[in-house]
Amino acid sequence: MTVRLSDEAEARLEHLAAVMQMSKNAVIEQAVLHMDERAERRRRFRDAIAQVDNRDAELLDRLSQ
């Protein structure tokens, strides 16, 4: 796979790889996995809020008055 980065992103990637003592490929892989985990946690949180909102709609309405 080829990844095209801006000069700034490439410089940051090289810096991260050096600081973390990882290959650039490993840094990119970890970044993708981290972003996916964060997105999944946000989705689960939104689902939980929607579930509570649906389940407790009457109570939440009374509390807001």
Which descriptor suits the 3D outline?
rod-shaped
Structural class: mainly alpha
Q: Percent of residues in helical segments?
A: over 70%
If you average the pLDDT, what whole number results? Answer: 95
Radius of gyration: 21 Å
Per DSSP, the total helix count is: 3
Number of strands: 0
| pLDDT < 50 runs, ≥5 residues | none
Distance between the termini: 57 Å
Write the element-wise H/E pattern from the N-terminal end onward.
HHH
Describe the main β-sheet briefly: none
Which range does the strand content fall in? under 5%
What is this entry, summarized?
With 65 residues, the protein is mainly alpha-helical. Helix content is 82%, strand content 0%.
Q: What would your notes on this structure say?
A:
- The structure is a single chain.
- With 65 residues, the chain is mainly α.
- Helices cover 82% and strands 0% of the residues.
- Helix 1 (7-20) packs across helix 2.
- It is rod-shaped.
Keywords:
single chain; 65 residues; mainly alpha
SSE diagram, text form:
Elements: H1 7-20, H2 24-55, H3 57-63
Helix pairs in contact: 1-2
